[in-house]
Amino acid sequence: MNDLEDLQHAFGNYLTGADTTVPATVAGDDKADAKERMDLYAGAYRARLVESLGVDFPGLWAMIGDDQFYQLCLDYIRQHPSTFPSIRWFGSHMVDFLREQEPYAGYSQVAEMAAFEWAQGLVFDAEDAQPLSVDDLAAMAPEQWPDMRFSFTPALQRLDLEWNIPLLWAALDREDDALPELEQQPYPVGWLLWRQNLNPGWRRLDVDEAWALDRAREGACFADICEGLLEWVDEDHAPMRAAGFLKTWVGHGLICAIS
Length: 259
Description:
5 strands, alpha+beta, Outer Surface Protein A, domain 3, two-stranded antiparallel sheet
């Protein structure tokens, strides 16, 4: 690296807390020494990043409290200094950070809250897409149904959560006086998050719908989805079950095209 790159690297490390050594080229004056000047700048920089994380993860903040959230943010800033032109994406590593970094790794509910909130943000920011209507679905000829494959809106996210995080998040968002107890399920539960026009929504999925939606998003045709549903329903009811899912997805504005 050249001298300018060395200075930029040292300056960035000090701002994020990765290094406590004040860059040698930073000078003091009669108002403040070099460290005081750097600390003032670093404090403002970190405060802006903490503010951004608080906007992206208000439920996580409320869940763990002010002091712990602030410390978490400082730990995150050191591990994942901002590399994005837009601060919108600064929190993109938060979920993996909470799953892997002690002491947070021992509390899966914390990472799940972050995952739920980040998914909501992705849904809200996703590009618009023109959804199909129920009339478009009804116009498909019967012989076309077995081979139908589906394209989904970008404003859709799927999560599997072990904890009842969405219920806690909703109570925190409403500022309820009484919050639901955190409960860990015996197996992960599927959740769907989406945006229809400008209205975000989320709901719990039954295990067969979660399976069918995941396969449809992977490109499975309607006939293959019906066959897979035989794990839950008999052969006579599988097509009706799959068609019911399809009608619900279209009603939510999730499907943009059928091929």
